[in-house]
């Protein structure tokens, strides 16, 4: 209800603020209104994310049996394909891998537990465990030692997982498994990703030297942290980086905000020269290597 009534409340405040302040001066009410609008945007984002995950979880609850049967049929088809090649003396193995399916299945199980009920999530998670164990017993792709170790650390007979960072044992839907098989609880995962976006030596976030599959951990990240990660990916992937020359800013300027030699900071609006990295100026930059080479050649030619 808040997502619908809040905009109406803002309009009331905006009208009242205009009536009380006709001289154009920025009063306390207008400042408060501005802050309130910023908070509303954050609330809208939360509602949007929650509605999306609720929709996914509802679909899982409604179609869980159909999804499970489809995955099992795919597994059988893959096994039959590989067996047929072996019987023909061919060394060709199936190129169809179910790891991503298993990963998506676990994500859906966690979403169901978080937004529908623990019972629904438990049933989906149990199906995933059975499917994974079946693939392992059937001679599927061998598990890494770290994945086996992580699985064995979980208490037997429960649906609990241990966070490799804080070593606390938590319910399965409060722990996400990364590429190597180790699990991270939400606070530890968020801290790890946050540090990676601020330290290039830690980027991309990884465990056991294996980069995280971000599509598998995004459900534990806030929208702000996901945006932060995407910006860091652009920053660390840019060779000739330009940072805002503003004394109190120094934010990375996305290449999409650079036009010619002028880089406009998306955070504070300051314009920086993309060549000398100082305040933007008119004309060619004196520190432009190509310009310097041209001037040097002209001098040598007399």
Number of H- or I-type helical stretches:
9
Report, as a whole number of angstroms, the end-to-end distance: 77 Å
Number of strands: 9
Q: Low-confidence stretches at least 5 residues in length (pLDDT < 50)?
A: 92-101, 130-144, 150-158
Largest sheet composition? 3 strands, antiparallel
Strand arrangement across the biggest beta sheet: 7-8-9
Strand residue percentage: 5-15%
List its salient traits:
302 residues, mainly alpha, 9 helices, IBR_dom, ubl conjugation pathway, zinc ion binding, metal-binding
Question: What do these coordinates show?
Answer:
The chain is mainly alpha-helical. It has a domain at 240-281. The protein has helices at residues 2-20, 28-87, 99-115, 118-137, 145-153, 186-198, 214-217, 223-236, 289-300, and strands at residues 160-162, 169-171, 175-177, 183-185, 206-207, 210-211, 258-259, 262-264, 271-273. A hairpin with a 6-residue loop joins strand 8 (262-264) and strand 9 (271-273). The radius of gyration is 27 Å and the shape is extended.
């Amino acid at each position: 209800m808040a997502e619908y009534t809040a905009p109406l409340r803002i309009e009331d405040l905006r009208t009242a603020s205009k009536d009380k302040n006709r001289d154009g001066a920025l009063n306390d009410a207008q400042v408060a209104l501005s802050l309130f609008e910023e908070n509303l945007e954050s609330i809208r984002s939360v509602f949007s994310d929650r509605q999306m995950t609720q929709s996914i979880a509802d679909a899982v609850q409604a179609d869980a049996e159909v999804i499970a049967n489809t995955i099992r049929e795919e597994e059988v088809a893959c096994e039959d394909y590989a067996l047929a090649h072996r019987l023909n003396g061919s060394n060709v193995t199936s190129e169809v891998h179910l790891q991503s399916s298993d990963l998506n299945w676990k994500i859906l199980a966690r979403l169901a537990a978080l937004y529908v009920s623990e019972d629904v999530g438990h049933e989906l998670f149990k199906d995933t465990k059975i499917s994974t164990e079946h693939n392992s017993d059937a001679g599927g792709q061998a598990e890494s030692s770290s994945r086996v170790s992580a699985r064995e650390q979980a208490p037997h007979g429960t649906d609990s997982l241990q966070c490799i960072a804080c070593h606390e044992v938590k319910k399965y839907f409060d722990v996400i498994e990364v590429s190597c098989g180790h699990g991270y609880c939400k606070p530890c995962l968020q801290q790890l990703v946050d540090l990676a976006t601020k330290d290039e030596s830690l980027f991309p976030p990884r465990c056991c030297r294996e980069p995280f599959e971000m599509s598998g951990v995004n459900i534990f990240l806030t929208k702000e942290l996901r945006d932060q990660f995407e910006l860091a990916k652009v920053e660390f992937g840019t060779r000739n980086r330009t940072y805002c020359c503003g004394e109190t800013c120094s934010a990375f300027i996305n290449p999409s905000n650079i036009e010619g030699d002028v880089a406009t900071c998306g955070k504070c609006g300051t314009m920086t020269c993309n060549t000398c990295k100082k305040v933007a100026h008119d004309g060619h930059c004196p520190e432009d290597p190509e310009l310097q080479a041209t001037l040097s050649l002209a001098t040598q030619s007399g």
